[in-house]
Structure formats: structure tokens, C-alpha cells
Amino acid sequence: MPSRRRVPSFAYAVAAAGAILGWDECGCGGDCGYRWFDEKAVARVVAAGPPTIRRGKHERGAISVLRSDDGGSLLVVRAPVVWGDALG
Ligand SMILES: [Zn+2]
Fold first, then answer.
1. Residue 55 Cα, ligand 1 centroid: separation in angstroms?
2. For ligand 1, a single-atom ion, which residues have Cβ within 5 Å?
3. Which of 42, 64, 70, 82 would you call most buried, defined as having the most Cβ atoms within 10 angstroms of its Cβ?
4. What is the pTM of this model?
């Protein structure tokens, strides 16, 4: 069962601890695919500080945190979210 916590500071802490990230740039929920960031790329995003979740025309942006069985973390970020230079 994936966590539904969306607090930016929580997502930031998870990303800082090491995670991969799927960026839903258009906010459609992933229908047209995610842009993937590996742990190295996520570390660069994290260096910019915590994310800001924005309100879009229809829906708020969102960050979902999922954990795999082996203890890895996956962040799914739905636009509009601003996070460093890479997301936003
Ligand atoms: Zn899309």
C-alpha cells in the first residue's frame, strides 16, 4: 500500500535519503509517461532544497512516496510542482 503523504518536507527527506523519481510534467497522472530521474539526478534536485507544490488550473500538484519491498523509495511527482531547476 503506497503512502499518500504529500508533505513537501517528507518528500524532501525521502529524496535526500536516496530515491528515484518519476516526473509527471503535464500533470495528467502519467498517461503520456514519466520523465525518470535516477538517484544521482535526484541528489542534484535535492541540493536545491525542498519542493513547492502548486495549484494548477484543475488540480493541485502532488508528490506520492512509494516504497519497494527491498527498501528503495520512489517519488512520483505530478505537476504543478517546482523543485530545483529540473522540475517546474
Ligand atoms: Zn501527460
1. 16
2. 26, 28, 32
3. 42
4. 0.86
